[in-house]
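A protein record pairs a chain with a discrete description of its three-dimensional fold. The following entry can be read in just this way.
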Amino acid sequence: MLIKKWLGGMLTYWYTTKTRLHKFRSLRTEQKTGRIHSLPKKDTAILKRQLLHLETYLGGIKYMTGLPDIVIIIDQQEEYTALRECITLGIPTICLIDTNCDPEKYSITKKRENSKQLGFFGDWMQLLIHDLTCTE
């Protein structure tokens, strides 16, 4: 789950994303061990700013080690870049869409601003994925 937004090319240029994830993990490790604080103030501020930026954009995928088997997109219209990227790479995609979107791809229609429905859907998908991975 991404926190801020989809960065264009996140999956297409996976090698670059993977190196940024590695940098993110190493900065987090340095922060947890306190090594960042032993640096001069200016370097500490720069590294903290980098860590905050990476957390914002890559925090939701920090444990990914490769391309995903499936992508679930909450708003097709808002995350159109992600959808196009998944189609280009041939990654199966499930989209939750508002009534003003194109339901041509695999999609489930949702009502705008209904967080209870999204929570139910997330729980349902988690159980479904768990059942599928346990049976294989």
Summary: The longest strand covers residues 93-97.
